[in-house]
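INPUT
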Amino acid sequence: GQNIDQPTEMTATEGAIVQINCTYQTSGFNGLFWYQQHAGEAPTFLSYNVLDGLEEKGRFSSFLSRSKGYSYLLLKELQMKDSASYLCAVKDSNYQLIWGAGTKLIIKP
Amino acid sequence: DTEVTQTPKHLVMGMTNKKSLKCEQHMGHRAMYWYKQKAKKPPELMFVYSYEKLSINESVPSRFSPECPNSSLLNLHLHALQPEDSALYLCASSQDEEIGGYTFGSGTRLTVV
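OUTPUT
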């Protein structure tokens, strides 16, 4: 079966750094996505990794290791507005997007 | 234009009503999707249209009926829904099924009473 695991909830402090991990087992791999979703709103695209390594975009970075079936999303200089759910999703061999259950990130002052 | 526009934003309907959700994009994307999302759950794929043809129907009950009038528009017709169908309905698009990430609309919050 296809499976994506990420922690259910994480808490971090404003101004700090947090790493959200995602491990996956899918039938094939055609890229990994990270989305941010605030409560009651639509997911917004954060990052896309298809090759191994680190992709950096401002305060957010995403890392991929295909051999380990592992990715992480790194958020630096945390702000209160970063409180949201972060969804890891993998495109499988049929180009279907398989979603993780999401990680709820709580930022405390 | 880099947006996916969904209307209405909120909808309350009775179990005997017929209503439609609308989705529009002008990014030239050739794949469009309907997702259903319950609170604290990830989006759940319902339908995929690729080049205006229904590509995937994830065993969705017939009370949900999708329609793709042209490459920019996607509708979801609703009839005889149940209270458990209450959810956030999200439309998304991508360059095609294989290429690109998904751009989501802001969703329609549906309540069935």
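end of record. Chain B has a mean pLDDT of 94.
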